[in-house]
TrEMBL record:
Residues 436-457 have a biased composition (Acidic residues). The active site is at H298, H343. One of its GO terms (cellular component) is plasma membrane. This is Phosphoinositide phospholipase C. It comes from Rhabdornis inornatus. Ca(2+) 5 binds at D688, Y689, D690. It is a peripheral membrane protein. Ca(2+) 3 binds at N299, E328, D330, E377.
Amino acid sequence: LEQMQQGTLMRKVKSKSWKKQRYFKLQEDCMTIWYQSKRTGKTEHAPPPSAPVSISDVETVREGHQSEVLQSVAEEFPPERCFTIVFYGRRGNLDLIAGSAEEAQCWVQGLRQLIEPRPFPLTFALVSCTWIRDWFQKADKNKDGRMNFKEVQRLLKMMNVDMNEDHALRLFQDADKSESGTLEGEEFVLFYKALTQREEVLSLFQEFSEDGKKLTLLELVDFLREEQLEDEGTEELAMELIDKYEPSETARARHVLSADGFLMYLCSVEGSIFNPQHRVLWQDMSQPLCHYFISSSHNTYLIEDQIRGHSSIEGYIRALKRGCRCLEVDCWDGPNGEPMVYHGHTFTSKIPFREVVSTLGKYAFKTSDYPVILSLENHCSMEQQEVLAQQLKDILGEQLLTTTIDGHIPTQLPSPEELKHKILLKAKKIGRLEDTLDGPGDEAPDVSDEDNGAEAEEERRRAKKDKETLAQALSNCVIYCKNVPFQGFQEARSHSRPSEISSLSEAKARKLIRDEGNEFVRHNAWQLTRIYPSGMRTDSSNYSPQEMWNVGCQIVALNFQTAGTEMDLCDGLFSQNGCCGYVLKPPFMRDKETLFNPNDPSSREGPGPITLTIQVISGQQLPKVANSKEGAIIDPLVRVEVYGVPADQAHQETKYIENNGFNPRWDETLQFQLHVPELALIRFVVEDYDKTSRNDFVGQFTLAFANIKPGYRHIHLLSKDGTNIPPSSLFVHIRITE
């Protein structure tokens, strides 16, 4: 770290031809890295227009030629001098080449040390303390380690706190124990603590504490049972919480919880709105593939728009890291017999198919052990199709599924559990699955008795046509996901082939939902369906996945590169079950004879509607709006949105609070009726109210209703990109009644 703080001259690389010397230096606070162009000595702001690289934005560091940019200069620079800094969200990588292998190692190891996650109980205290220290250093203009009242006021502005001057001055004087008219390190921490005193948490604490100073073990148990509805092993839980969150050793030894410990519990994982038991793998993974919603991406290779966007391996790495389990590749003939991946008939850049496959082999099972479906859009000639098949087999080896799991024709799809660590190809296939298993036969497929003559004829004709345009080697790699055109639910049911799959455009799917909702749900109980965005969405915008999930469609493909409500819903649904990319559908959507139709909620068997009551109490340290004016303070409001069957779609919002992003208090109650709670997603959005134009987005958090914990809970907000923005949160009380 000391070496990094002295600074290092390295090359920043953007492409094969753009490689410039830059001077990189870790700042004293170990929180930021500045870099400047050597020549002029002027600081080049890292990603424009924001300032330096903040360590908290760094997700990981890759060594060697592990990005397309560094692969393109692999012949010039050895891998041991190269490394890539990868950021959270959708921000581009920073590719660097050090002067020597030792310098590269110094930065790689140093960065890894800085981003290493710390154990949880520390993080809350740490986030607060390092956060305070960090701000203190920013505002201490003359760097004397003290702050006068003027500097403190400027700091509050920077922290999005607009405080009444008298109130701030009173707190300042209370904290200035040395009466020097300035605050030094510890005094500033005192001042900050007084400032962040959470009145609403304190009064809740005092409601359950007899002496108002501590919660005894029994008082904590009462709180957990009555308010948090923790009914199993409550005493063990109470002991655990005291051990984990009580900062004072004497209190821990006496099994009591102080107000500080109580606040730390409420801000922790256990005090979060998201049920921690559902964060891990908690669902049955042994049901047929079609009984799960599957996290799916459209045009995975694009990281921008559909017309001129950049095609990139990073698209696949990012999607897989987010738990995506169905990826798309568009393959076209390339030079020198090498198939290429890009968006046909547009100006998007191209990547070799072989690179996509090796990336898939490397990253497919880092986030999840469950199967990946590779959706192949094949535009290649017969010759290059042979190459596709060869590359898939050579690079993926055992990972590629090339036969059924038991060697028999399936009567239903296998389960995610049975397909662990397997990659399934979804593409066109010559003839039926039987033919692949029996070995190649030249005769036309046999026709089963119930097939009538005309249908059999049609099938023979299609198999013959496929033989002329499809390479047998590629066709043989398609096992459980044979692409077939959709010709109606009756038609599909009459053949009853679970290993076939149809793709529908969003518009076609909407029409079927409207006209044949129940049939659609039944169809999805035994066969897979893939939905893709309309071709008109050249800006890579997304449709709402919710209406597709409402009829049980499993593979609802979205443009992962585009942030917004639709991706928030996708992240919200798949953030449970260990982020494995598979979420089990409710029982009434897994039954082939189900009567359920999302347009008629009463068709769902089970208890009547549920009432969800949300008291929005307060907000904590909400971030400023991106690119807002210097000194601007937000006027926050909270909107709660419910996504589900049409009868459940709803939203309500609180009033806005003027000029307070630091600790706004709403104390408002919102109420919703849910007819089909099993399908509902709840999205909490904070916006900056603007009476003349559209409100600005501040932060959001989305989760499935099934994962909500009742009681007093914190909601830890996420940015537009879906990344954490600590310590921003909402404090709410949740009640669920039948």
